[in-house]
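Page 42, continued from yesterday. The earlier attempt failed because a stray header line got pasted into the input along with the sequence. Redoing it now with the clean sequence only.
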Amino acid sequence: MGSQPQAGQVPTVLGSLGKALRELNIDTEIVASGRTDRGVHATAQVLHIDLPLFWSDLTKLKHALACQLPSSIQIKKIEAVNSDFHARYSALKRRYRYIMSDQTPNPFEADFVTFIPSVNFERIQSAVRLFEGTHNFDMFKKSGSPTHTFERTIYKTRAYHYQHYFILTFEANGFLRSQIRLMVAFLLEIGKGTLGTQELQEQLTCKKRHLSRPAPQNGLYLAGIQYKS
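This time it went through. Structure tokens are written below.
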């Protein structure tokens, strides 16, 4: 049900992790590098917490948490950082991956891959580069975005095949709410031939909105965070 804690017994990533930490007598605020919505995945989420002194053995803590957490959450690594490190504000770049397939849908991948009809992937490969650079993404965000600044810089995009999957990656200094899903949805319309690069340029320059429906959330993954070395 997403990353952020919610009231009641709603299972979320930080809610489940907070419960596991309290079972180990660790009552602390958990700060994530960013939020993920319901149905979105993360293979490289970064969190920071303040640990009490009696939990100095981080290897033991990792094993103890593994026993408390549900199978849908895995702690890859725990390490000490400087006191000025902040999981969100110290991040320089964020990378997301969107995974699609035009194969016959199957129940084993339904929650993790977006199944799409056959599209012209070469058009998508050409159009995705138009997102690179600094743009005002006001028309590529969901209402309720918790920010008043809509300018973001996308450093790198990729569109490639891996086995029978189509994969898109976006690396930027930050993203607005549902920005990537809206960009992917536009690219899929280009791949189907219902929209073109001219319409993409018009929406990207905030001249005219052509599409406001995001792509499904289940194909989206937070795939990497880059911090200062």
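Notes: The chain has two domains: 1-89, 92-227.
Reminder to self: strip header lines before submitting.
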